[in-house]
């Protein structure tokens, strides 16, 4: 699917790796916004940490010239998404209006094919029924469904926020403004490492930032055409 | 027709002789070709019917054992549905585990049945005649159980009907682009096709059973025989239908395992994304399938005392077949491996960690079972005709092929594009219970089936025998075949 | 306000709601907030339409402004207040998790009494009875009381407690907890007092600095105000004209800040002051950075062994000189003394020496330099953390039986101090202990009465922001964004009610309730950025916009320098003999759990630590070389022992730590504090002695040596990252 400008929006995220400090604010914000249950210690040991956004930490070099590199990974909202064609029931499909990968939770039968086919491993399978110790469930966001057991879920670019903002704009009879929609992670990010906007809106911040000299896409060689652009961490060498 | 060298009278009613040499001879049948060792049809009928009707206590003990294991499988499945897939060892990286490996495995062992029946039939290989039914039965139940695995595997089994193209007012259809959908379609087609193929061939045997039984069996067989009279036009029609179905079923058979392999190879998962997976899986399926048929042949020959029907020549032929498939499998396996290795893509290299990593023991076990054992033994006719040896080899191949599937499914998934997310997989009790339980379920179904259905196609054997002639050429005796078509 | 948009209108409306529901009611606390059933919902509360209320985060004392999303009367999301000068719309993980404090399943749901201390059997008590009891105890105790406050205590409550203590003739409240301890507040304050004559926390204008030398300051992770520094760091990396600031981090174990540094220098623990002195010496000797800087350096640099300093950084003397030159020749260099300095025994001096680098560079009160907080008008001041000496004094009073009633709010002394400090023994000598904390923490278990305060999302308050970012004095408002979730009462109201009956205090605390007090204090502030001529309007805008701050930051003159010569630093001495205890211990507050408060919140427990990606556990970071030498590998449980105690932790092979250092995060190892915190991990403070440092500012937690012994046990690490070594062939995909 070539990236042609069509109707709707092309929601895009820019992740500036030079600024990401790995502080986990986005992770907790996402849990709060999207009703993602907290993984228990055992579940994490069993390799089932269910964060919709995770910050991967890679080591580079050897002590004492060792460097830690943070890489926030979440659904890349691929333009040519490997997860979409494999779903036998169309639970994973591409939304026309938002140009996002959308997961229909009550259609999903849990074949987990999409999860296998996602090279970014960002699709989360609900191995258990979600549980919130009462009264923690009071905090749940009423805009977002709590997904039952046996379905796939993943980052939605906080589509509920996009929808709310669009409805608001529609009511007011104006187009959506840049910066009006901010997913929970972007909203929380202290260093402004996450930037979100509509790439097809020429005046948006993301449209102006792309192309960027440090820009790359994660696993670009796979041809998934992600809607997430990463900006490589900068380098300045001293005293060496 | 030549005189039989064996003692007269139905040998299966005689105790095993003390004399070892004689016992060996009995055990291994005559040196003669089955089709040259013709017996009166009534006698053949009786051999088969006796096995169906005479059931000892040992049989029921085995049934009880298998039934208990099947029950364990059903309970495990139930608990898994109630509590969620969390009780399995699957994780965020390895989302497909033994359930999918089992699916491939059961489809695989179901493959040889139809191949032996249909392909060998078309190629006029006469050694298939007594084996065909036993093999087809594996296909039938193997497929049926394989069909259970997608259901066991999915997270929300209660929504599974979304995968079936049911017309609905919302015009929501399954995704026809999904390999999984076509896999399901292929399995269903194959299951229906092989059932039909099997049933057609069963009709004369049902008629035979109808004519020789009383009570409920007579009613059952009467219904199943569809009024078969044995008239010539009926035989002719049977021949035509069998041939048509043989031609039809072979492409379906290829499509099934290719479809299964495409579930994997159409994904961009390193270790899966390979064009060779289609034929590789078909060969792998035949490989494990033929080995399964050998195991079953040995079991039914031992337990049902089918020494007359299943002879040295059959084991020999199956052994040669297995050897050929071993070579084919090795070719495909290493063709894929070398492509990976030579291509040297970073993530595909990660799969090569199997050589040294935590998966290495399984990898070497697979190589031992699938390559070393068959290649080291099957070249010898003595081994091929020795039942214990063939049983052991068959089991080794089963283990090897099962491990191969686990390595491909769970092993590949545990290595993916972002090394941060590599998670090894360890099975938990539900997968173990379900895997063992479904194997027992297959045995249970098979064992019960042999009580109801003639497991040897008597008419095919008789047909073969009737078509044979023996000619003396000098001092040699050469069988020739009468071409009736 | 010139551009009055609909959004603003909604905000005003929201604030209006908050004030509207303040309409009268007889009970003090209920007078301000009443719960209304939604069949009679206020006009502006529509089902499905969120309201946002501004308030202040109290998960740490930084004073970030928050806006809380309320749907149908429930708080569902906390976000940063975009107008707020501290966090500028951003919020850290701990701030986000505040909701789980509000809805914590283990909250104390009402006043309770514990018959036998430590029994954990609490009997519900009616509030009137509880307040009466408190009144009786306090009036009987007279001046023999102790008040122990912590970093989650609101400034207004601190003020009220202080007034009460003064009125009854008791010593002022102690404000000390592990957060202030591990962040080195007091050492920083004392050092600044010594250097500049102002006991206030300066801010470092990271956003506009060129070169930053951070000496153990994890300002992106846990130090003082990680969110505010995070915002600055984003700008630091992305300065005008494509300038990218350069960060050099000196620390023994890579922190979040170290991970973002351009150069990470694994310095020997305790050698920070030495290296700072060496840098000064080099600048002076080599004349780096022009004559002015070199002259100042020559005046302030002491004698120092440069080779020893270079060795402490595992670099050559030339490399150290390169760093000195880099610092001296930058236009806006900045040196930040961090928390790790504060626990070394000579913390105050060490902080001062690092501060000298800024003085040499002339970076005081200039953009990209050190900024000193302007005063907040109307006499509003931030409560200053107590020194450890004051804490020890209180403990001594308690042990001597001079404290008949101890009031604990916002602190958890049993957990916050090392066992050797003798908090438990001291508590046993106190007749009556009252805990106002929302959870049954380690101290509350030893208390007689639980009189739970409202958590900050239910209660009133304000925070005088410290340190003040961007040179902007600010008072951040705190208002109830939801009705009280349990039968809990504002401690300030309880105190005011009690004080009414105590003659000495009645005159000092004349307010009917806390809101009257807060309103009186706040309306005394001049007109700020929020506008409002009338006091009522200013009060409403204060609540609506999340606080008070001026429209533009008032400039501040560079402070007078008290120090005119070199500062002597005592060499760091270590607890434990090198032969017996071969490793340095590096304690650091967990990025997510903070000083341990976060351990009760599952979001923070389950979020992976940024560098190790471990959650829910306590681990020891060990260099792989050391681990190999000791025969340890990931997942081995080891016993880490110091002269003061021992803990059992799980080994994590961490490539970015000195081979002679073991790092353990603080935050786990609670024996109480709710189901998520209980019996989980180890409390590394057990390894630390209770001795005060040379200035009495802090107990010394950064100069301890430890040894490691392997145990037989194994425990898989609950980590997000893969446990599989990808091998040399597999490269990181970016």
What order do the helices and strands come in, and which of them pair?
The complex is a heterotrimer of chains A (about 240), B (about 475) and C (about 725).
Chain A: E1 11-16, H1 25-34, H2 41-45, E2 54-60, E3 67-73, H3 83-86, E4 92-94, E5 101-103, H4 113-117, E6 124-125, E7 152-153, H5 159-171, H6 184-188, E8 194-198, H7 205-209, E9 215-216, E10 228-231
Parallel strand pairs in A: 1-10
Antiparallel strand pairs in A: 1-8, 2-3, 4-5, 6-7, 9-10
Chain B: H1 20-27, H2 41-53, H3 57-83, H4 98-109, H5 111-122, H6 132-153, H7 179-212, H8 215-224, H9 232-265, H10 277-304, H11 312-343, H12 346-351, H13 360-377, H14 381-384, H15 387-413, H16 429-452, H17 458-467, E1 468-473, E2 476-481
Antiparallel strand pairs in B: 1-2
Helix pairs in contact in B: 3-16, 4-6, 4-10, 4-15, 5-6, 5-9, 5-10, 6-7, 6-16, 7-8, 7-9, 9-10, 10-11, 10-15, 11-13, 13-15
Chain C: H1 6-20, E1 51-56, E2 65-71, E3 74-80, H2 93-96, H3 99-102, E4 112-114, E5 122-124, H4 127-141, E6 145-149, H5 155-168, E7 174-175, H6 178-182, H7 185-196, E8 203-204, E9 211-215, H8 226-236, E10 246-250, H9 256-260, E11 263-265, H10 272-286, H11 290-300, H12 306-312, H13 317-329, E12 333-337, H14 339-342, H15 347-361, E13 370-371, H16 388-399, E14 405-409, H17 413-416, H18 423-428, E15 432-435, E16 449-450, E17 461-464, E18 475-478, H19 491-501, H20 503-506, H21 514-523, H22 535-545, E19 547-548, E20 583-589, H23 602-606, E21 619-622, H24 624-630, E22 636-641, E23 646-653, E24 661-666, E25 705-714
Parallel strand pairs in C: 6-7, 6-14, 9-10, 9-12, 10-11, 14-15, 15-16, 20-24, 21-23
Antiparallel strand pairs in C: 1-2, 2-3, 4-5, 4-16, 8-13, 17-18, 18-19, 20-25, 21-24, 22-23, 22-25
Helix pairs in contact in C: 1-22, 4-19, 5-19, 7-15, 10-11, 10-12, 10-13, 10-15, 11-15
